[in-house]
Amino acid sequence: MAKLRLTPQTREFYALFDRAATNLVSTSQLLLDLLEHYPDRRALVDEIKDREHEGDRVTHEIVQLVNKTFVTPIDREDIFDLATALDDICDFMDQTADELNLYGVEEVPPEAIEQAGVIFRAVSKIADAVHLLDGFKDISHHLIDVHTLEDEGDRIVRAATAKLFRNGLDPLVVIRWKDIHHDLEQAVDGCEHAAHVLESIYLKNR
Predict the structure, then answer these.
(1) How many CA atoms lie within 13 A of 94 on its CB side?
(2) 60-74 burial, b for 16+ CB within 10 Å, e for fewer?
(3) Is residue 184 part of a domain?
(4) CATH number, domain at 166?
(5) Which domain holds residue 18?
C-alpha cells in the first residue's frame, strides 16, 4: 500500500501541471506544423502520438500523487478536473493528426490551418495560466484571451463548414473535412473548458 503523505505536496502537483501544460504547447506546435506542411511532414503524426502518450503519463502520475497524498494543495476534485481537461485537449489534437492519415488527406484547407493556429494560441494561454497557479496569481487576463480565441475558433469552423457545402465538393471530401474541422473545434472547446476549471480553482483559493 502506498504511504500517505500528511502535508500538501504543492511543488509536486504544480510541477506536474506545468509539465502537462508544456506538453500541450509542444503538441499544438507540432499539429500546426503538420497541417501547414501536410503531407510533406507526415512523420509529425508519430511525434504527436508520442506527445499524447506523454500527456497520459502525466495524468497517471497526477492521479497516483492524489491517491497517496492526504492533504492536497487544492481540492481533489479540482485536481482531477484540471488533469482531465488538459489531457482531453491533447487527445483531440492527436485524433486530428490520426485522421489526416486515416482519411487519406491530400491537401489541407487554409481554414484547418487557421484552427490549428487558434489552438496553439489558446493552449499557450492555458499554459501561462497553469504556470501562475503556484501562489494563485491573477490569471484572469489569460482566461479572457482563451474565451476570445474560442469565439474566433467558432467563426472559423462556421465559415469552413459553409465552404464545404457551397463548393460542390465530393461528398466523401465533405464528410472527411467536416469530421476534422469538428475535432479541431473540440480541441479549442477543450481549452475553454480548461479555462473554466482554472478560473474555479483560482476563485476558490485566491
Answers:
(1) 19
(2) ebbeebbeebeebbb
(3) yes
(4) 1.20.58.220
(5) 10-205
Residue where the block lists cell 489558446 = 122
Q: Is residue 4 part of a domain?
A: no
Q: How many domains does the chain have?
A: 1
Contact status, residue 197 vs residue 81, Cβ threshold 8 Å: yes
Query: Cα–Cα distance between 197 and 206 in angstroms, integer?
Result: 14
Considering the domain boundaries, does residue 1 fall inside one?
no
Per-residue pLDDT reduced to its tens digit, 31-84? 999 999 999 999 999 999 999 999 999 999 999 999 988 889 999 999 999 999
Among residues 20, 10, 134, the alpha carbon closest in space to that of 83 is found at 20
On whether the CB atoms of residues 145 and 197 are closer than 8 A, the answer is no
Threshold 0.90, pTM exceeds: yes
Q: Three cell numbers at 121?
A: 494560441
Residue 200 domain-assigned (yes or no): yes
SS3 5: strand
- Picking from 28, 15, 17, the residue whose alpha carbon sits closest to that of residue 122 is 28
Distance between CA 45 and CA 48 in Å, rounded? Answer: 5
Tens digit of each residue's pLDDT (9 = 90 or more) over 96-145: 999 999 998 989 999 999 999 999 999 999 999 999 999 899 999 999 99
